[in-house]
Every structure is written in structure tokens, then in C-alpha cells.
Amino acid sequence: MGLTLNCCTGRALNQLGAENSLSTEILGLIIFWMGGFIFCYGTGAFRAGAFPLLLLLLTVPIPDSLLDAPLWAVRLGSTEVCSAIFTLANVPVLRNGFELTLPGNSIQVAKECSGIHSTLAIFITSLIAGHLFLASVWKKAVLVLFALPIVCVTNGMRIALLTLLAEYVDASFLHGSLHHKGGMGFFLLALLLLFAILQVLRRGEGRMSLRVKSPQNGGQSSASFVK
User: Fold this and answer.
1) Which of 1, 2, 36, 123 is 20 to 30 A from 181 via CA?
2) Residue 48 CB neighbour total at 10 angstroms
3) Closest-CA residue to 118 (of 164, 163, 85, 71)
4) CA separation for the pair 19, 61 (Å, rounded)
């Protein structure tokens, strides 16, 4: 399957375009690697290592056409959070879609400022954290679903902070180093929020009890295990 996909991509380069062809080629390579793993070690080993092997699929570049929906959702959530912060701070603001107009400045939550890269990073982190620290599937799903709201909150806070600094301190904050390099601090805040949610979801999963029959006398013995 991987070799076929790679060969077909080379022949249909003009129809797919450079971006989609790169995604298809890397997908073919990942499938080829998985097939090689199964050929060398068998399906039992593949099932045992399914999570890290399937995680390789996240190395496939996502085409822009598939990113439009999550990109729009992050922009909308960030704008909502930013607008709510202005309302709580009693800052007069006029909103028109993704554009927010204050008395002295006007900003727009553009695609470049949407935080889509942070969303992908938090999404991957939540997948790994859920796999390592949570047992139930529904809790893992809840943790992953929190990735988008967390990024919307932290990105909205970042946009609101920069706008307020530009409005009441200096307009250069909208184009300065804090704008271009300050995202790391809010990304760390997003990781802290994700960790807090993880700790809440881990409650009740710390201890498990198991009763097993004793092979000597057919009786029962109980043992407690700590995950």
C-alpha cells in the first residue's frame, strides 16, 4: 500500500499539487514502515506498540484544506475570549466578526495569530498524556477535547493583553518583541491548564483492587495494586 501510494503520487503530481503530494508521499512512507514492522515482528508486536506506531501518522503534513475548519474554530474561540476580557475590563469595543475596534486601535484575529500551531502541539501532548496517565477511554477523550478550549483561552488572553498594552501604554506593543516572542509564555500556561485538567481526571484511578483465587486451597485472597 505504501509503495503504491508513493508511485501514484509521483504520477499525479500536477493534479494533487505540491502540498498534497508531500502529505501523500509521507503517508505512504509511514504505511511502508508499519508494514515492515509487521513483516519483521508480527501482528502481536504491532498491537503491543500500536499507540507509538500510529502516532507516526501525526508526522504527515496536514493540507490547508483540512485545517480550515479547526483554524476557523480557534480564531472564533480566541476572538470570543478576547471580547469577553474587554467586556469584563469595561473597555469599550466594537466587534465585527474577527475584527475588534477600540477607541485608539483596531485589531483583527488573523490566521497567523490564531494559534493553530499551539493547538496541534497541545493536541499531541494531550494524546500522549492521556495514554500514559489515564486508564479509561472516555477520560482520554475528554482530555483531548480540552485542547481546543485551552488554546482559545490562552490565545485570547494573549491578544487581549497586547491590545490593552497598545491602547493604554504604547501602540508599539502590537508590533514589538512581546508580540512575536511572547507566545511561549502563554503556551506554558496552556500546558499548566492541561496538567490541571489531567490531575482532575486522574482522581479515582490511583488505586485498584483485584481478587484472585488461590490455586492451593481454592480460596480467595485479595491484593491491592497502585497504578
Assistant:
1) 123
2) 12
3) 71
4) 8
Are the beta carbons of 19 and 64 closer than 8 angstroms? Answer: yes
Classify each residue of 61-71 as buried b or exposed e, where b means 16 or more C-beta atoms within 10 Å of its C-beta.
Answer: eeeeeebeebb
pLDDT (tens digit, 9 = 90+) per residue, 142-162?
A: 999 999 899 999 988 988 888
Query: Which residues are 100's β-sheet partners?
Result: 95, 107
**108: Cα separation from own chain's centroid:** 23
Distance between CA atoms of residues 222 and 209, nearest Å: 7
In the DSSP assignment, the letter for residue 62 is P
Comparing 10-14, 133-137, 188-192, the range with the smallest average pLDDT is 10-14
CA dist 11 to 17, 21, 25, 27, 213, Å?
Answer: 11, 10, 12, 16, 63
Q: Would you state the cell numbers that stand for residue 96, as one nine-digit string?
A: 465585527
Distance CA 109, CA 173 (A): 16
Q: How many CB atoms lie within 10 A of CB 100?
A: 22
| C-alpha dihedral (140, 144, 149, 152), degrees to nearest 10 | 150
Predicted TM-score of the model (pTM): 0.75
What CA–CA distance (Å, rounded) separates 168 from 174? 12
